[in-house]
Amino acid sequence: MIQKAPKKYDATEKEEEIQEWWESENIHPKVKQTHEEDPDWYFLDGPPYASGKIHLGTAWNKLIKDTVLRFKTMQGFNVRKQPGWDCHGLPIEVKVEEKLNIESKKDIEEKIGIKKFIDECKSWAMEHVDIMSEQFQRLGIWMDWDDPYLTLKNDYLESAWWTLKKAHERGLMEKRLQVIQWCPRCETALAEHEIRGEYRQVKDPSLYARFKLTYTSNEYLLVWTTTPWTIPANVAISVHPDLYYAKVEVGENTYIMAEALVSKVMSELGIYDYKRVDLIKGEELEGLRYEHPLLEEVPKQNDFKSEHRVITGEHVTIEEGTGCVHTAPGHGEEDFEIGKEY
């Protein structure tokens, strides 16, 4: 007999009631058993870090997956529902470093010991696998929580090495020099996803800098940069081969910049008494030598005097700046790629 619906719905109470029923009646195992002979549907769980309690992002991620898995089950598939856990990496290491009051990587070697640190990381990971598994189950997510894959287990490590071996045998691996994101505090490379989305809005200085051409005493390439701290590593200045560049006379000095940006740049610099004296295509500037402005401050730059020259690149635009781009291959992927060409 249909009972009258209560006037007030208590979500927490109802969730606990339903989950208790699932548990007491073995509902999830029965559903799995019902579909054992059905066509397989393979699902690979992209693993969250086992570094703390779940947050909105990890909860949303698993709930979406659970929705798809239930849908495929209802369509008549034998769905593989193995959860996974990423038990390596900086998130766990940083948490353990905080726990052990480690201030630098040297402390691990000199004060804690590498083996103890690794054991602490494993312990932290396994503890939080249990915590997060319980939280996901509380959200009503159906997965095989008693049979997860853990990246710290030998079977997973061996499968990863096996995959790399096969890729190497098939010629699918390449060894090359590449710029990477680097954390000076953690003394390690960072994956792109560890950087993406983690920026905060800050006000940073930009500046104009002049680079004197070697064939004259008063002619300069004018650049604008938002990363002045990379100028000590400058080895080239990029121009666009198809743009036109003006030689602009200001007093006794002459500055080279994109012709289309002259008015804007002079206005920003507060210079109103100037004269365009020549026009030259970017490709004609290629190969011009210049002096690095910080030779005394950065003596190492003296080893690269022969490399300080103008190069051309399609990445140069006239949307901002001067059309002359400061290039430091050690400080960015775009700079690195064009540096390899030269």
From TrEMBL:
Keywords: Aminoacyl-tRNA synthetase, ATP-binding, Ligase, Nucleotide-binding, Protein biosynthesis. Residues 18-222 form the Aminoacyl-tRNA synthetase class Ia domain. Its EC number is 6.1.1.5. The lineage of its organism: Archaea, Methanobacteriati, Methanobacteriota, candidate division MSBL1. This is isoleucine--tRNA ligase. It comes from candidate division MSBL1 archaeon SCGC-AAA382F02. GO terms for biological process: isoleucyl-tRNA aminoacylation. GO terms for molecular function: aminoacyl-tRNA deacylase activity; ATP binding; isoleucine-tRNA ligase activity. GO terms for cellular component: cytosol. Residues 331-342 have a biased composition (Basic and acidic residues). Gene3D superfamilies: HUPs, Valyl/Leucyl/Isoleucyl-tRNA synthetase, editing domain. The keyword Nucleotide-binding applies. Residues 323-342 are annotated as: Disordered. It is an enzyme of class 6 (ligase). The keyword Protease does not apply.
